[in-house]
Structure prediction request, 114 residues.
Amino acid sequence: MKRSRTHWFALAGRYVEFCFRTSSVPRVDEMARMIGMSREGLTRAFREATGHSPADTFRALQLRRAKELLIATEHSTAEIARATAFGSARAFYRAFLRCIEMTPTEYRRQGRRR
Prediction:
């Protein structure tokens, strides 16, 4: 059965929310195991339906939540890294800088000026 783009994004969202609750870093092989697929099968089906890899989707969901927390809370970047399942403050900082092209602190400062 071929699944829709919406199905895959919803499934990825539920899995990443699970990772947020359990403070575990999202992993494609873990999601595949949880839904009874091989890593390769999941990656192929996900990419065919969405145009994105599961890992890229996980990272986008993590960063979206991190941006929300940076603006809406006073939590430290270490606390936000934990809450968004990055594994460490350093991993969070590096991913944020690479993808958003500014540090989490710069993003927070800029977001609060608006």
Notes: The radius of gyration is 15 Å. The helical segments are 5-22, 28-35, 39-50, 54-72, 77-83, 89-100, 104-113. The chain has a mean pLDDT of 94.
